[in-house]
C-alpha cells in the first residue's frame, strides 16, 4: 500500500471512531511505529487530525469556537449522567456549593432536589432553571448576573464581583477541555475569568469532565490540573491519560455509564 493510500485509510478510521491509537494502526497496516507516526504527522500538518499522546483524534474546532448549550447537551449523555450521580454523592445537607456553567453540572443540578438546607451559587442559567423546577423551601439558589455566553453562562465583571464576595464548601466545575500542558481550559475568555473566581471562592474543587475532554484545548486556561482536589470522569478515558492525570490531581474518580 502506498503512503497516500494508507494515510487516506487512517483518516477514514479516525473519522469513523473519533480517534485511534498508534499501536492499533501498526497492527492493522503491518508497518512500523515510525511509519505510522510519520503518516499522522502528515495528516496533522494538513489540519485533518490532532496528534495526541499515543495516537490521533479528528481535528477539532478552533480553540475559541464555543458550541451552544443545546448542542453540547446531546453529547455523551450517559457518561455525563454517571459523572453527575457520583458528584451528587459528595453533596451533604447544609452545604454551600457552587456549580459552574456546563451540561454535566446541569445534569448534577437535577439530582440535588432532595438535599436539605442546600445553598447553590451558579453563573449558569440552565443550572438555576433545573433547581427552580424542583424547589425546596429550605434551599437557596444564588444566580449571578452578567453577560450571557453561547453556553448560557453569565460572565463579566458583574458575575465576578458577585462570586468574589462569597465562600462555598465545594465547587463543581465543568470544563471544555483538559491536558497536561494547558490544564483545564475554556473557549470563552470571559468565562475563564468567572471560573477562576469560583475556584477562589471554594474550599475544594471538583472537576466534572467526560473522556472526550482529554487533549481538547480551549483558548483560555482556567487552572492547572494540580488545582483539582477531585476529577470525576468516565471509563472511556485512555489508560495513559489516567496515569498522567492521576499523578497531578488530588483524586481521580472513574465512573461507568
Automatic annotation (TrEMBL):
Gene3D superfamilies: 3.40.50.1360, Winged helix-like DNA-binding domain superfamily/Winged helix DNA-binding domain. It comes from the Bacteria. GO terms for molecular function: DNA binding; DNA-binding transcription factor activity. Keywords: DNA-binding, Transcription, Transcription regulation. SMART domains: DeoRC, HTH_DEOR. Residues 3-58 form the HTH deoR-type domain. InterPro entries: Carb_Metab_HTH_regulators, DeoR-like_C, DeoR_HTH, NagB/RpiA_transferase-like, Tscrpt_reg_HTH_DeoR_CS, WH-like_DNA-bd_sf, WH_DNA-bd_sf. It holds the Pfam family HTH_DeoR. PROSITE patterns: HTH_DEOR_1, HTH_DEOR_2. This is DeoR/GlpR transcriptional regulator.
Amino acid at each position: 500500500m502506498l503512503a497516500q493510500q494508507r494515510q487516506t485509510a487512517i483518516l477514514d478510521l479516525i473519522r469513523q471512531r473519533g480517534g485511534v491509537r498508534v499501536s492499533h494502526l501498526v497492527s492493522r497496516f503491518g508497518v512500523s511505529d515510525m511509519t505510522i507516526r510519520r503518516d499522522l504527522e502528515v495528516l496533522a500538518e494538513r489540519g485533518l487530525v490532532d496528534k495526541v499522546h499515543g495516537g490521533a483524534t479528528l481535528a477539532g474546532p478552533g480553540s475559541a469556537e464555543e458550541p451552544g448549550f443545546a448542542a453540547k447537551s446531546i453529547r455523551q449523555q450517559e457518561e455525563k449522567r454517571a459523572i453527575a450521580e457520583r458528584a451528587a454523592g459528595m453533596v451533604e445537607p447544609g452545604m454551600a456549593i457552587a456549580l459552574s456553567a456546563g451540561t454535566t453540572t446541569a445534569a448534577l443540578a437535577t439530582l440535588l432536589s432532595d438535599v436539605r438546607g442546600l445553598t447553590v451559587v451558579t453563573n449558569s442559567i440552565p443550572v438555576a432553571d433545573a433547581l427552580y423546577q424542583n424547589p425546596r423551601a429550605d434551599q437557596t439558589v444564588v444566580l449571578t448576573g452578567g453577560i450571557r455566553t453561547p453556553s448560557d453562562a453569565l460572565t463579566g465583571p458583574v458575575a465576578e464581583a458577585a462570586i468574589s464576595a462569597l465562600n462555598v464548601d465545594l465547587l463543581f466545575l465543568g470544563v471544555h477541555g483538559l491536558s497536561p500542558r494547558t490544564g483545564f481550559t475554556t473557549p470563552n475568555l470571559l468565562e475563564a475569568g468567572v471560573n477562576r473566581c469560583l475556584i477562589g471562592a471554594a474550599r475544594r474543587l471538583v472537576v466534572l469532565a467526560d473522556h472526550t475532554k482529554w487533549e481538547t484545548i480551549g483558548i483560555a486556561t482556567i487552572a492547572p490540573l494540580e488545582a483539582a482536589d477531585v476529577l470525576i470522569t468516565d471509563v472511556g478515558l485512555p489508560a495513559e491519560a489516567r496515569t498522567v492525570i492521576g499523578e497531578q490531581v488530588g483524586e481521580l474518580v472513574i465512573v461507568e455509564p
